[in-house]
Design a protein that fits this description.
The chain has about 250 residues and is an alpha+beta fold. The chain has one domain. It contains five helices and 13 strands. Strands 1, 2, 3, 4, 5, 8, 9, 12 and 13 form a nine-stranded antiparallel sheet that branches. Strand 2 and strand 3 form a beta hairpin. The longest helix is centred in the first third of the chain and has 14 residues.
Length: about 250
Amino acid sequence: MSSPVKLYHQEMHKNVGYFATWLPTSPIELGDIGVLEEGRFRRVASLKELGIQLGAIREGTPENMSYSASAKIGGNVSTAAGTPLPAAAELAIQFMSRGGFVFESLGMQNVEIADRMALAESVLKSYEKGHWQKNWLLVEALYRAESATIIVSEESASEIVLKATSSMPLGSIPLADPKLGLTVSSSHGKLVHIMAKDNLHPLYSCVRVRDSVLFGGKSVAPVRGAREQDRIRSLTRPAVEELLES
């Protein structure tokens, strides 16, 4: 994986504890099964395709999210994404390092599989029957965004100038708001940019069968005498380093 994407992955994971979908527009859904490959989740199957019920879904409260790293927004003034700026028709964003980014989203909502115990039971039965491969990961939670603007620099010095096609001035509302009608006026350097794209799933969490289960050992010590926890804890989340080194 190229180093510019590493900072984006690391910073997003540090802030929200989820992996960043790469590319940001890549489709990813609850119940997807896949592997990590060059910093991406590569889908190979789904719970439905294996005949496993997804079950009930739990949804969080929608909220707006704003993060940035190694970015100067508006002239020479350094500011975080989402900070109000003077009214203007155009807005310049300068990046000072590879992997610098701006992430803005509206209506970010956490969506996850509700019954973790039933999920673990189904996955383990599938593995025991030889239907589940030991390197597979399962998407068990994600964030979906009503709208998102994501810009990631692939060079140490790059710039993008955004223009609002609506009468609403830049800085009055978040850059993720489609009401702005954002377009790219100009840019230099290599950049990945998504402008006010709707229905994205820019963050996700995945689990795998714990190694102790794969190699026949005890999956987990009992927790407070609750045997049900053994099944739940037979699934574990990969560390962000695994994504970065894939």
